[in-house]
Each structure stands twice: as C-alpha cells, then as structure tokens.
Write a structure and sequence with these properties.
By secondary structure, the chain is mainly alpha-helical. The protein contains 3 helices and no strands.
C-alpha cells in the first residue's frame, strides 16, 4: 500500500472509531441511567406485588386501556434475558480489549 493510501485508510479508521466510541459513550450514559429503573423492574417481577397485579389483570380488575406489558409473562423475562446477553457481550469486549491491551 502506498503511503498516501495508507494514511487515508488509517484516517478512515480514526474517524469510524471516534464516531463509534462517541456513540458508545452516549449509550453507556443512557444505560447507566436506565439501570435504576431496571433494578426496580427486576425486583418487582416475580414479587408478591407483581403476582397480585397479574392476578388482578387476569380477573379483569384493571382498566382495559391500561398499558400493562409489565404483567405479560414474557415481556420482563425477555428484557432480563436480553440484559444478560448484553452484559455478557460487553464483558467479552472488555476482556478482549484488556487481553490485547487496546486501551
């Protein structure tokens, strides 16, 4: 590869990396803010209060227009599963970066 082409290619790598890292930083800010809500939701899901709310929904005691995805059997479970997969994925990225000293 000629010098000019190499420099152009590396400049593109710099630009893409900088843009991706900025987006990741912003996403991590949002993730950090969402963790408090996630913890509340995780504590609620499967608790006695969740079960009472679920049973009230099943008995038709809740307003028909009430958004209640949190009472679905899959909604919160799927989110918990997705979160676990994301955490594992982040851990792999971190482990690779540490192993290869990419910091």
């Amino acid at each position: 590869m000629k010098r000019i082409d190499r420099i152009k290619a590396m400049e593109e790598c710099l630009d893409r990396s900088a843009a991706a890292f900025k987006k990741l930083d912003e996403a991590l800010d949002g993730y950090g803010e969402a963790l408090a809500d996630y913890r509340k939701l995780s504590d609620y899901y499967g608790s006695a209060k969740w079960m009472q709310d679920y049973e009230a929904d099943e008995a038709g005691k809740l307003p028909k227009d009430l958004k209640r995805g949190v009472l679905s059997e899959d909604g919160v479970y799927d989110l918990i599963t997705e979160h676990g997969e994301l955490v594992a994925r982040m851990a792999r990225f971190v482990a690779e970066s540490v192993e290869k000293k990419l910091y």
